[in-house]
């Protein structure tokens, strides 16, 4: 929001208040940005408050009430080591946060993927940076998933982000190849290398001995 271009905030390139003294009409892009910012803040506040409430109101998994003796009951097999030590409310809330965060990551990337695909240009996206981040997502997922007792909701967000970023990277690489073939830059501006210029030396067009 802080770096949003001022001339894109309103329908015209004029100041916030026009000559008549009436406020200018917000652009659709700026209105959408404000709406998404408010939704993000509201989601963060509600999630933080509910998480704090569940943590404070649930018994600590480290200091659970002592089970009746003898324990474990010899008539039953050993308990499942992969079972979650968290209370039911916290476990369900953690499941919701993991799934919802994965969905939000997908929603975050889909507009950029769609725009880049339709524009057929790389634009301001950094292909080298994505080449580093995409394998980094794989390493992050493996480092979390291979830990003992880790729930899948802990790494699903990074997995979805990695897949979406790899999709965006593949599109950018395809358009990068096309741009080089068409001799245009990332924003569609034609590039005229010296070897393709009809007059590489303007001061010596006629030629001299």
Short description:
It is found in: Membrane. This protein is mainly alpha-helical.
Task: Note the topology.
Layout: H1 28-57, H2 88-119, H3 127-145, H4 156-182
GO cellular component, one term: membrane
Pfam families: PQ-loop
Keywords: Membrane, Transmembrane, Transmembrane helix
Task: For this entry, give a set of tags.
mainly alpha, Monooxygenase, 52% helix, membrane
Give the DSSP E fraction (strand runs of 2 or more residues): under 5%
Count of extended strands = 0
**Gyration radius from CA atoms, angstroms:** 28 Å
What pattern of helices and strands is seen along the backbone? HHHH
What's the CATH architecture of the domain at 94-190?
Up-down Bundle
Helix percent band: 40-55%
Determine the mean pLDDT.
80
Keywords: Membrane, Transmembrane, Transmembrane helix
GO cellular component, one term: membrane
Pfam family, one: PQ-loop
Transmembrane segments: 29-56, 90-110, 122-146, 152-175
If you had to describe this structure to a student in words, what would you say it looks like?
With 209 residues, the chain is mainly α. Among the domains are: 23-57; 94-190, Monooxygenase (Up-down Bundle), CATH 1.20.1280. Helices cover 52% and strands 0% of the residues. The protein is flat and about 70 Å long.
